[in-house]
């Protein structure tokens, strides 16, 4: 209860076409580096922030397995954070099976969200 008072919305963008069309990730960037990249995570976070008219945008992009993707190893995850203070990405290398990697990525994204809330003064 009460989540709608804080959360604006979300975008699930597995396909590059959705990353480009909905989140505004440059197609040239996706073609150059693939979908698993810090710059892509940053563009996704910016796009989510813009699409949802939110103060903070968070994104994840990575490889949960079972096989490598876009030349990146299983467990490689980037978390993007966009706020009024700027945009950044953070790279992680998680171990475990697909479910474990997804859980670790969620925990990392939530930790980055909490840090962003502190940075912009929403938490004290």
Characterise this structure.
- Strands 1-2-3 form a three-stranded antiparallel β-sheet.
- With 124 residues, the chain is α+β, with helices and mostly antiparallel strands.
- The radius of gyration is 14 Å and the shape is globular.
- The chain has four helices and three strands; from the N terminus they run αααβββα.
Regions with little confidence, pLDDT below 50 for 5+ residues: none
- Which whole number gives the mean pLDDT? 96
Radius of gyration: 14 Å
- Count of helices? 4
In short, what is this structure?
The protein is α+β, with helices and mostly antiparallel strands and 124 residues long.
Write the layout of secondary structure elements.
Layout: H1 16-21, H2 27-33, H3 38-51, E1 57-62, E2 76-83, E3 86-93, H4 98-119
Antiparallel strand pairs: 1-2, 2-3
Question: Which key phrases capture this entry?
Answer:
124 residues; alpha+beta; 3-stranded antiparallel sheet; 18% strand; 4 helices; 3 strands
